[in-house]
DNA sequence: CAGGCTAATGTCAGCCACTGACAGTTGACA
DNA sequence: TGTCAACTGTCAGTGGCTGACATTAGCCTG
């Protein structure tokens, strides 16, 4: 131990492991670039494999399907947010904790997705997802799983029984708001991370009013 | 005109149109029965086509894909709810109108899905969807489209600009609650329509408290 | 009611995502 | 260094889905 110098998180286990990591990252990068350049459907797995110089079979040993590689960098963020959520101080109320975890997640985007996928590529891949029906579907399913984990986390934080529906309701509302923000962002023209973050904050802030107020009376 | 007697809604245009309708219904029925009996993935399109005695190619002329036929009876309900939503009196607030439209939709399930698909078959198909990852994904995507239409409807009702995010936020929250209710239902053991309806009402009723209350203090 | 028009269907060939089986290659480690 | 296990490539096959073209069958007009 302690032999290696200048590395941060996970020390590469050996040559084999390092090569695998490299192949994986190359596949993600090549996939995203091809998807963005020519569209998701119009890109075949053979093309991706060829670009990375591996066989098609190898591609499928790294990813369960074409969808998975398209959502790969998105998954990194979700994992990151989950970690941050677990680290939230227990005094924070559920909504507050989720809000802080998500915002902190986007503020540290770079660390979340690693060096192999530049931030701008990641953002364009997000855009790709939002504009490709097959990927929208896959993404929503993954989000549902995330929601369930978040609800379980919150139930634990608050000391509630697993059957209590309130955490699930709160999480459903929260991620509904996030989805609206994501959609607004993808339809706007400022594709920066900052713009997305601002939209998230704005959507969260107008959620309360949106639920309570009488929209027909002139705004307060 | 006026020659035909004793028919209700859409007068069958002729023999050709009637046969198409019949084929379509037979495909939906056979699909659902096969899916339920042996699972969605383990059922091939060839099997379905064979059961109805049409070619595989014909199947794909009626449905864009295997997913679509699995969601067919679900789609009927969504269309029905949309209609009911449009008929809601304008005095109702958005949440109220959505709630009433959805509940009324389930109360008139029979009329919505027609005779070709019995209610119990429909409910089991709903269960199938909730337990099949590929169908969950497809269903969530369709729900998203429904949400957008609902938001547009509400924006119009309330006389709001299309860019106002509040209708979208309200709809997102509402359908988040509905999804939770659907999930609770599919995981319970009472698979009746009544049970689903009750869960929807219960979820809607506990939504307010779930958002506002301090869950840690003993319930009021 | 014959015959042409057109919509609906069947047949065939082919693409692409994905998988199992088997063989070859290459790090790991005694 | 040689053995083992992990990783990769090749091949053959299944199933969803599509375009092109031929065939059938309701429809409509004279």
From TrEMBL, chains A, B:
Keywords: Coiled coil, DNA-binding, Transcription, Transcription regulation. Residues 21-81 form the HTH tetR-type domain. Residues 136-163 form a coiled coil. Residues 44-63 bind DNA. SUPFAM superfamilies: Homeodomain-like (SSF46689). InterPro entries: DNA-bd_HTH_TetR-type_CS (IPR023772), Homeodomain-like_sf (IPR009057), HTH-type_TetR-like_transc_reg (IPR050109), HTH_TetR (IPR001647), MftR_C (IPR041347). One of its GO terms (molecular function) is transcription cis-regulatory region binding. PANTHER family: HTH-TYPE TRANSCRIPTIONAL REGULATOR RUTR, MYCOFACTOCIN BIOSYNTHESIS TRANSCRIPTIONAL REGULATOR MFTR-RELATED. This is TetR family transcriptional regulator. It comes from Streptomyces inusitatus.
């Amino acid at each position: 131990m302690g032999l290696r110098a200048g590395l941060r998180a996970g020390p590469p286990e050996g040559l084999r492991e390092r090569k695998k990591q490299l192949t994986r990252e190359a596949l993600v990068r090549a996939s995203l670039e091809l998807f963005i350049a020519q569209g998701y459907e119009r890109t075949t797995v053979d093309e991706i494999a060829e670009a990375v110089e591996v066989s098609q079979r190898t591609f499928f040993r790294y990813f369960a399907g074409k969808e998975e590689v398209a959502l790969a960098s998105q998954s990194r963020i979700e994992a990151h947010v989950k970690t941050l959520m677990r680290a939230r101080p227990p005094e924070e109320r559920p909504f507050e904790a989720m809000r802080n975890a998500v915002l902190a997640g986007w503020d540290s985007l770079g660390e979340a997705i690693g060096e192999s996928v530049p931030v701008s590529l990641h953002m364009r891949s997000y855009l790709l997802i939002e504009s490709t029906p097959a990927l929208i579907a896959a993404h929503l399913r993954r989000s549902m799983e995330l929601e369930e984990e978040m609800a379980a986390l919150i139930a634990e934080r608050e000391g509630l029984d697993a059957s209590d529906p309130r955490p699930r309701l709160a999480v459903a509302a929260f991620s509904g708001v996030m989805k609206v923000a994501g959609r607004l962002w993808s339809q706007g023209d400022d594709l920066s991370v900052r713009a997305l973050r601002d939209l998230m904050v704005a959507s969260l802030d107008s959620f309360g009013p949106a639920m309570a107020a009488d929209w027909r009376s002139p705004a307060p």
